[in-house]
Amino acid sequence: MSKLVVKNLRKSFGHNEVCKNISFEVQKSELLCLIGGSGSGKSTLLRCLNLLEHIDDGEILLDGEDVSIPGFDPELLRRRMGMVFQSYNLFPHMSVLQNLTLAQTKIKKLSAQTAQDKAMALLEQFGLEEKAHTYPDKLSGGQQQRIAIARALAMDPEILLLDEVTSALDPELVGEVLQVIKSLKKQGMTMILATHEMGFARSAADQVAFLYGGELVEIAPPEKIFTNPENAKTRQFLSRVLDAN
Amino acid sequence: MGNKDQPPLTRRAAYEAGLRKRGINIALFSSAVFFLAVYFLIPLAPGWPAVKQSFFNWDILQTSFPKLLSAFKLDLLLFALCAPLILILGLVVALMRNITSPSLFPLKIVAIVFIDLFRAVPVILTIYIIGFGIPGLGLFPPYNSPYLWGSLALILTYAAYMAEVYRSGIESIHKSQVSAAQSLGFSKWQTLRYIILPQTVSRIMPTIMNFMISLQKDVALLSFIGPIEVLRQANVLKSLYGNFTPYIGAAILFLCITIPATRLADYMIAKEQKRKDA
Ligand SMILES: Nc1ncnc2c1ncn2[C@@H]1O[C@H](COP(=O)(O)OP(=O)(O)OP(=O)(O)O)[C@@H](O)[C@H]1O
Ligand SMILES: [Mg+2]
What we know:
The structure holds 2 protein chains of 2 kinds. Chain A is α/β, with parallel strands linked by helices. In chain A, 39% of the residues lie in helices and 24% in strands. Chain A has a domain at 73-206: P-loop containing nucleotide triphosphate hydrolases (Rossmann fold, 3-Layer(aba) Sandwich). Chain A has helices at residues 42-49, 74-80, 96-106, 112-125, 141-153, 171-186, 198-204, 222-227, 232-244, and strands spanning 4-13, 16-26, 31-35, 57-62, 65-66, 81-84, 159-163, 190-194, 207-212, 215-220. In chain A, a hairpin with a 2-residue loop joins strand 9 (207-212) and strand 10 (215-220). The longest helix of chain A has 16 residues, at 171-186. Chain B has a single domain (64-277), classed as MetI-like (MetI-like fold). Chain A binds chain B through residues 47, 50, 52, 74-75, 78-79, 82-93, 102-103, 106-107, 137-138, 148, 151-152, 155, 161, and chain B through 174, 176-177, 179-187, 190, 194-195, 198-199, 202, 275, 278. Residues 42-43, 163-164 of chain A line the site of magnesium ion.
């Protein structure tokens, strides 16, 4: 059974239809990369999956369970589905350790000690254990994003949504964050990543989905999308961004 | 200072240290000239002996001060009662004002009307209307006390202002913080409690301090409807002695509280600014 199934998802802001009848599936331990120009709807799609936006129509099935039916408690879904944003993820009034433990203690009701052990183990895994008592504004952008990912992982999500987690970073910091995503993939984490990093999508993704004007134009393994796309719009987009690089 | 291990000053650092020293000297000298001039010139004014007699009478200040001080305790007490209620009510109104759920819409309207109303009417009018109006309904002691209803007028007015301070503070928090919290599974209430409000409060702390300083002074307005607090006491003493010095005594009492509080507020503003720049 697919880990995540999206069927005919629709979302409009007023008259602006931002997700037009989107359907796709993600298998367990797969990395799906969402690519597409600015305003194509990548962020909105991810926010809909996390039920941060109210969807107009369609179904979202997590392990076969419909989490999009009206009345489904979004907080229950979000415990199973982590999400990391482009920026302003970390809570600036808390230390790194508190950032990682707050949701564990308040939502999963774990003891402070258990939560802290878990947090420290994750920070160690990411090579950030000496930052545990630092405040976010004293960290580099790359460190902040890695900690935001660690914080999402502390909740033991079954699937992780990553919305352009490297877009706000200086070029030399992008690599360290992408490295984390690669290592998570090795550990078998299911992920959906919206990204402008075509090189990464090509080398690391299992599937790549191209969005254009709110439509999912094409979804295929990266070799196919990058070498032999079926749709003319995909071809156009890729030749534009790949030429620019 | 005097540290033997300190490296010798570079030429630039020595030059800048010299400049700083010169600046301090100039400031000291010009202040001394200014205050000496004030000290010697004001007494030359033709009306000075009369003013000195009726405003700066040392004997009257000494005899009236204990009475003023004990009346000032009432000001402090009223302040201590009003301040926490203002902070709580202001927050409640701000949250009501931010309601989006349609079923709770009436609460939002109440909040909007409340804020508009109490910010629009001068505080002294509100004190008169509530302070005289409500006891006039024929309530029995202690519910006809001007302390009670006068304080309520102050609380309502200040809470209306505080509500707007909270609201703009809440709005200044980046929207991604809400998304980040919700995506971790926090409920709306938990997001507010653990993520939004702590950041808001530290941002608006300087403004809160300034409101509190202003409240501390406005407590004296209650004298107009009855309570024998320091301003009213000063009035009584003024009539008794036929001399304005008790007003100066009352002013000194306010200065003793508000000046340290103002410095503290300035310090907090500077600290918050530094944090932002870091
Ligand atoms: N909260 C909102 N209210 C109204 N319109 C919105 C909202 N969020 C997004 N939109 C619109 O939806 C469209 C898609 O935006 P979205 O942010 O999902 O694109 P994106 O693919 O993530 O772009 P980018 O690469 O710039 O992040 C845009 O036209 C945007 O203006
Ligand atoms: Mg986006």
